[in-house]
C-alpha cells in the first residue's frame, strides 16, 4: 500500500523544489506568510509549556514539530469555512484567526476559551477522541443543504482512526458527499501506543478505500505540500466531488501533554534525527535558496511575535474571575432540583456559611 499511497513532497528537507509544477504558485509573499505563521505558533507553543510549568495554565498539549501540518492546512481555508480541531490543533485555529487570549483561557480551564474570535466557525476542541469527526460531517452537510460554497476541515491523530467515530464520520461523509476534508496528523504515537501496535495497515490513507473516498498521503513537514493538497481537496469538496482523507506524516517532538513522560515509551534520541526534517528549518532553507530570507528579518519578527503572545498572556491573566454559578446554570435549560441544591451548597460554602 505504500506504493499506492506514497508520501508526496513539493520541497525536500534541504529546501529544494522537487515538483516544478508548483514553482510559479510558490511566491515570496506566500512563503513569508507561511514562515511567519510557523514561527508564531511555535512561539506560542513554547510559551504555553513555560506557563504550565509555572502553574499559570493547566495541563497543556504541545504540538512542536507539527506546525507545517497545521499552518498549511488552515491557510487553505476560506473565511466562511468550518474548522473542527482536536485538543492539539490550536496552531491551526490561531492561523485561521482564533483569539490567542481565548485559546489561553481554554488551557486555563475557562469556558470562554471555546468562543472563537471575529465570528469564525471554529468548533470547541474535541477532547474525547474522534468525536469531532461526525460533527464536521454534519456541519458540511448542512452547508451543502443550504446551497453554500462552504466546506469543513476536521483534525485528528493516528489514534483516532481506531475509534468508531472515525469510521462513522467517513461513512456518512461518503454517502452524503459532504464537503469535508478529514485531516489526519500521523505523528506515529497515540499517547504511548506506536503506530505498529495501533493498526495493521501500512498507511492511514488506505482506510479511505473502504468508503470509496479520495485520499492522499503527504509529507506533513512540507508546508507547501500540505497547503496545496489541502487546497485542492477543499476545492473538490466545494465542487460536489465529495470528501477527502489526507494523511499528513509528521512527528511531535514533545510529550503527549505536559502531564506525560515520553521517555517511558519512546526513544528520545529519535527527536534529534527528526529535527533534520523540522518544518520551520525546511522552509527557512527553501527561502534562503530563493534569496528571500535574512536573519535580521527573522529576529525582528520573533520579537514582534513574542510581544504578541505576551500581550495575550497578560489579557488572559487579567480576565475577570470565573463565576462558579456558570457550572450549574448552563447544564440544562431549567436546572434540576439536584443541580439547584449543589449550587446552593457550593455558594454557601464559598460565603463561609457551611
UniProtKB/TrEMBL annotation:
Keywords: Oxidoreductase, Pyruvate, Thiamine pyrophosphate. Pfam families: E1_dh. CDD domains: TPP_E1_PDC_ADC_BCADC. One of its GO terms (molecular function) is pyruvate dehydrogenase (acetyl-transferring) activity. It comes from the Bacteria. One of its GO terms (biological process) is branched-chain amino acid catabolic process. Residues 40-324 form the Dehydrogenase E1 component domain. Its cofactor is thiamine diphosphate. It comes from Sutcliffiella horikoshii. This is Pyruvate dehydrogenase E1 component subunit alpha.
